[in-house]
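Journal club side-thread
Mid-discussion, someone asked how the predicted structure for our own chain would compare to the paper's figures. Pasting it here so we can look after the session.
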Amino acid sequence: TPATVPSRVPQIIKACHGFLYFVSVIGITGQRTEVNKEIRTMIENLKTQTDLPICVGFGISQKEHVHSVVQYADGAIVGSAIVQRITDHIDSPDLSKQVTRMIQDLGSVLSNGDDK
């Protein structure tokens, strides 16, 4: 998180396997209007300390967020956006299509270089 004391970072990295989950904000998960711009420097610093992929989560809910985050991180985690889409369409017969469509839309910036 942005609040992590730098002296703890080596311990955190040592405990990680697979990838490092960088929590982009202090607070609760959910949708935000924009991604915390200050995390870029923190992630660039982390990349000098580990070869693990670094994925950013918390508040990543729009295509623009994903596009922004993957400029400096290795991935974007969109858990709350998926939960919100399920909640919005819970009684819909095409719930799985709605969720799939949203994931494809958010991921399109990864597969085809779409700007937004």
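Post-session note: The radius of gyration is 15 Å.
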